[in-house]
Each structure stands twice: as structure tokens, then as C-alpha cells.
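lol forgot to send this yesterday, sorry. C-alpha cells for the thing we talked abt
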């Protein structure tokens, strides 16, 4: 009668015993290898079984793949998560999705780290002409020439017409660095002197 040697559990805890007539055999379970009668755990992570954007964790007899932060999937296939869809940045910032992450940048006229943005008072840097007034607004600013000056706020010249240099029956047109006088319709002259009678 054959004796079933496997009844005495001769194999390692992580091995399976198979009885044969007159003998038996021990085979390591999946995830283990046999070395000098000892069962040794195989580190499957050494073969890089997971996705490039995943982390492999070895366990006794097995392993697990987990996608890294910023990625989603089963660990064998991991895709980038578009974090910008959740609007993680400040209202006055732009979100740029990157591979596995995202970047927040405050928009023009604001300063900060993208998660917190505050308005920049551009007027502190005196961007306007010396004869202009700077008004700060949220995210921007405006330059306006002072009274007696004309221009776009960045360049302001004297408005010579403010002193009424022309005849009282003439128009005054301010020009860049000068002015021009033109008699009313119905009058004749050089604008400094106008004569004639206006006809109705």
C-alpha cells in the first residue's frame, strides 16, 4: 500500500505537495521559487510589470500596481488626469494641464502663485506721462492727460487752445506741439483776425 507522504506536510508553507507511488513532490506556489529546499518570495516588481506612470508594490506571493498621483487607471494602463476640469486655480488665474500635474498662473494685472492672486496697482510704477493722472482698476489701469493737456495719457502736450489764442469768431484746433485757428463760416481771415458778416 502506498504511503501518502503529503499527509505529514513535508513541504514549505508556500508550496503544494503532490503524492506519487512511493514518493512525493513539492512545488512552490505562484509567486515563489524553490532554492535549496526553501521557498523564497519572488519580487515581481523587478520585472517592471506596471505602467510607466504607476508604482509597483511587492507582496508575499503577489504584487500590486497603482497609478501615480495625477493619473487614473488600473495600474497596467494609466492615463493623465486633466486637473483643470475641476478649476483648482484662482478666479484670476489660468490653469494649464501638464503630464501628471497642472500649473496655475495669475493673469496679467495680478500677482501671486496662481492659487491666490491679488490685483497689481500698476500706478505705483508711474506708467503715465508726467502731465497725466493714473487710475488703477482691477487687473488694469488708465492714463488720462491732466486739464490743459491733450494726448493719450502716455504722451500729453499743452492744449494751446485753452488760452483762447484765436479770434472770437474763429475755431481753435490743438495740434501736436502747436495749434491752428480757422475763421467761422461766413468770415474771412487768418483765424487771428476774422472779418465779414455771417450770413443766415
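and heres what i got for the seq, position by position
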Amino acid at each position: 500500500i502506498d504511503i501518502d507522504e503529503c499527509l505529514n506536510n513535508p513541504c514549505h508553507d508556500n508550496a503544494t505537495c503532490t503524492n506519487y507511488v512511493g514518493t512525493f513532490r513539492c512545488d512552490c506556489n505562484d509567486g515563489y521559487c524553490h532554492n535549496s529546499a526553501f521557498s523564497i518570495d519572488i519580487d515581481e516588481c523587478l520585472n517592471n510589470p506596471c505602467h510607466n506612470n504607476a508604482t509597483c508594490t511587492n507582496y508575499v506571493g503577489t504584487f500590486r500596481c497603482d497609478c501615480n498621483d495625477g493619473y487614473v487607471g488600473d495600474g497596467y494602463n494609466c492615463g493623465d488626469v486633466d486637473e483643470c476640469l475641476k478649476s483648482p486655480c484662482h478666479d484670476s488665474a489660468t490653469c494649464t494641464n501638464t503630464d501628471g500635474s497642472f500649473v496655475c498662473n495669475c493673469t496679467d494685472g495680478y500677482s501671486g502663485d496662481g492659487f491666490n492672486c491679488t490685483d497689481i496697482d500698476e500706478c505705483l510704477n508711474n506708467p503715465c506721462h508726467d502731465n497725466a493722472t493714473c487710475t488703477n482698476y482691477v487687473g488694469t489701469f488708465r492714463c488720462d492727460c491732466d486739464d490743459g493737456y491733450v494726448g493719450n495719457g502716455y504722451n500729453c502736450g499743452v492744449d494751446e487752445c485753452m488760452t483762447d489764442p484765436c479770434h472770437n469768431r474763429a475755431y481753435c484746433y490743438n495740434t501736436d506741439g502747436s495749434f491752428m485757428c480757422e475763421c467761422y463760416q461766413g468770415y474771412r481771415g487768418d483765424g487771428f483776425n476774422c472779418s465779414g458778416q455771417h450770413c443766415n
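The chain has a mean pLDDT of 87. anyway ping me if u want another try
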